[in-house]
Amino acid sequence: xxxxxxxAIFGLLVGVYIITCRKSTSSLPLPPGPKPLPIIGNVHQAxxxxxxxxxxxxxxxxxxxxxxxxxxxxxxxxxxxxxAHELLAKRGSIFSDRPRLFLATELALKGLxxxxxxxxxxxxxxxxxxxxxxxxxxxxxxxxxxxxxSQQLMHDLLENAGGAGTDVQGHFQRAVASIIHTxxxxxxxxxxxxxxxCAVIKFNEEFSEFIQVGSHIVDQFxxxxxxxxxxAPWKAKAENHYQGKHHLRHQNFKRGVxxxxxxxxxxxxxxxxxxxxxxxxEELAFELGTMIDxxxxxxxxxxxxxxxxxxxxxxxxxxxxxxxxxxxxxxxRLPVSExxxxxxxxAAIVEEIFRWRPAGPEGVPHLNREETVYNGYTIPxxxxxxxxxxxxxxxxxxxxxxxxDFVPDRxxxxxxxxxxALPAAAFGYGRRTCPGRYFARNAIWIVVAQLLWxxxxxxxxxxxxxxxxxxxxxxxxxxxxxxxxxxxxSFNPRGPWVREVIDRVGDTYSKDHETLLNEIGAxxxxx
Length: 527
Fold this sequence. Notes:
One of its GO terms (molecular function) is oxidoreductase activity, acting on paired donors, with incorporation or reduction of molecular oxygen. The structure is a single chain. By secondary structure, this protein is α+β, with helices and mostly antiparallel strands. Helix content is 51%, strand content 7%. The chain is built from 21 helices and 9 strands. Strand 1 and strand 2 (73-78) form a beta hairpin. It is globular and about 70 Å long.
């Protein structure tokens, strides 16, 4: 036991020395950055949490491209849209791999998550399958399911109106989870205490910790995984994570393919078999689960940040949204997707949510296959490339002098009807752009429109004092995803017409979602 430990420690020290002494073949300098110390580099300066805040300060001091050294590993932080697009999109053939995050990718996921795959044929096969069910055309076919769950969300919020307020997260998590579970597996999620939903949330929180660049010594030195379990506690945690995910995803996949109604599981299983793809059903089942992870994190958190904006960013944008909604929709029905062309301000709100509180403020790291040069600086081969979405989304040259404020108007042309073609960093770059962006925009749009049509949204009340709770608009978790900390908000109907319309729609659980799924399946036969 002790000899294994000593060997691992010796290997660690040798590895640090060798990596630190590596030299670039280029005579050009590295990008600027904070001054490193011998051997450890900038480890002592690495942010312990919420790295996007530190990276923004570094960008102000050192410029749009910053270099730091983490135990010999070069890390390049990109902080403007121009730089990120040039390297990650235009030079995508070089910059589309992922860093080897040993704990997340190999231990916790066994290499089966598209998010962390290198840009290989396996990745491209997974990507083609996802795009086939998530690009703009199929995403539009899902609008009836998204509308159904949005209507149920309005019903649930109305049922909990008044009093000191309601816990925000649960209702929105249930709605988004039900959309994606219905489409993937053919069944709805009817409560935010659903065991399957609770398990997905727990797994997402764990993975968000596993994927943090620089947070796990085993990522830098995988040899440490040879240590005995009591010295390597991450091994058991990662294995439990994988086994739990594997079991849940296979149970859901089995339920989906055995369902009578059309669903994405059945559709992609047939695609794999028809096209004779080299993808075992075990791998397909695991991949489908990643769609749930992405939807539940990104889509849910974006909607919750809208609520935070409603209670912390003043009433100006809410007043404008309601003027538009009342003029176009009136007060006799809820907004529907067919209203979208006539509701540009709602579309601007959706884009502002993505900018103001991007789901992944530090982005997902890339890795370059080759040494390259940009703007007179060398970027060594194998650098971890961090697209700092938080800072990119706050470029004053693009978004104005008030980037920390929630201002949907910045997305509209002077006519107030056309969206500006501003960059949306939240969905990634180039060959790693999120394939679920059309699905997410549609789901968020319908909820935003119906929510602002229906409710006055205020901070919840303190049980002790009866006064409104002070909500910090920056209070959030630390990890891959920027999630608002739990809080209460009050959703009160804007007027009697709201209850009348929502009651007319009623509880949607009696609605025949399987018929909707079969209609979607019929649309797919035409694609």
